[in-house]
Design a protein that fits this description.
heterotrimer; A mainly alpha (37); B mainly alpha (226); C mainly alpha (223); A: 37 residues; mainly alpha; rod-shaped; C: 223 residues; globular
Amino acid sequence: MVDGMPDNGGYMVAAYIAAAVIVLTYAVALYRRGRRP
Amino acid sequence: MREMLLHAWLVLRKDLVLEWRARTAFLSTLVFTVLVLLVFNFGRDPTAIGPLDLAPSVLWVTFTFAAMLALNRAFQLELENQALDGLLLAPVSRHSIYLGKLGANLAFVVVVQAIALPLFALFFNVDVGRVLGPLVAVMLLATVGFVAVGTLFSVMVIRTRFAELLLPVLLLPFLIPPLIWAVMTTAKLFAGRPLSEVVGWLRLLAAYDIIFVALATVLFPVTVSE
Amino acid sequence: MNHIRVGRWISGGALVLLAGVYVRALAFTPIERSQGLAQKIFYVHVPAAWATMLAMGLVGIASILFLLVKDDRFDRFAESSAEVGTAFSLVMLTTGPMWGKPIWGTWWTWDARLTLTLFLFFLFIGYLLLRSAVTDAGLRARYSAVLGICGLVLLPFIHLSVYFFRTLHPQPIVLKPSAPSLPGPMLVTLLCSVTVFTLLYVGFVMQRYGIAVVRDESEPRHG
């Protein structure tokens, strides 16, 4: 970390995880619906 | 064109006459409006919050609810006795039906507003007379905005499940822009700002109205065709 | 063409590429000095925004085309695009405040971006609710098309109301959320991410479309 830079990595991690969870959940849901429509 | 307007007038008159005979929706809307005004009035601490801070919001919450109740009433009317089907069989163009209903809903809300406004001025001690002209203009413009899209959607939701729940949900995104402009304009008017500051918003409201009334008139036949 | 199968391949490939974008954005893209690590949310939030707008725009266009031509394929496409758009708008709604809190100091603010996001979400949800509330397929298609077109026409007005609101109420902006011109490596990451999200959109819509085709074959449309 460079001095003077805000320490907000936690938000980044949370956001990346949230986005991945949503995308993956929807992808899985579509996959399963496609198997027995 | 003249015939379309004439038919629209007939539809409008029919709706209003029916409403006048029963008067239930009108009275309940009025009672509700007074209730909202009273609650907001007693709910605030007069020493801490000046009436002008809350006034525009209170006014518009009241008007928006009145419009929603009017729209609900509109399709209840059609639901009974399948009146809408009867109307569709009549030799009037679909556009006339929409414009007539729009006019009836508008008239309903405007009458409620005409009664609510003096009560509001009384309870909140706001001098509306000073800005009455522009205030009436913004009230009319915003109400047309609410009711134009609302009338279109209310006919659609008749044939759905959970109709009463669905209408506000569908309408929400469409109510917000005119509501924002109306509240901002009203706030400026009550604060005694010059008219030049609100002209922009009034123009936006007018544009919104023209576009959505035209769009709804064009789309309405789609919702009732077989 | 078996939409479901082709869509699955495209989505699967896009998901793998998304993992690659994640790695690139997190490990191989420079950190923005004044905003810190949180700025990297940009590489997820902006492409999601693009995909959401794309989804909404295509719902509107498909709605217009459906009413003009009365081809059921446009209706199926619209319903698919709306569902996929809802998912991406959810990504926007979660990543947006998570980016706003460290940068602006507040979870929510009525700026153009977040307000538009919320509206798009409401419109999508309303569209899906309307579809689920109408049982007759023909009626459902027509009603959805009407709502889709109204939603499309509403979008410029939302932008205008936010614009006026902002000129009156300055935002609590401590740092500018996105640099006006991106340095090279950052731009590359962004473009990669936008491409991947677009691929995801295509793959998801194809699968959803295929599902709609199968559903309609078992319950033929009438009216």
